[in-house]
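Quick one, T. Sequence first:
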Amino acid sequence: MKNEERHQWCFSFMRCDTGGQKTKTFWGIGNEEDSLKSCQQQAQQYARSYQAELDEKARAKARARGDYPPSPIKVQIVGRSMWK
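Structure tokens:
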């Protein structure tokens, strides 16, 4: 069985409407470059799903209050580092 390197990367996500941030870690297999590419793809997918979750919550809250739907909430990746 081949022993492959594993690297853990931490990404920081920011809500553009409030400036609030959260972090999440992802594991990648291979050398540092390969694991970073894999983790960046995972982080981008997570950012999209986090953004969709925030949008749905904001729309549900607006519907409950009878307000107009809010502007879409944007989430961006603002930082990353490899955990050693």
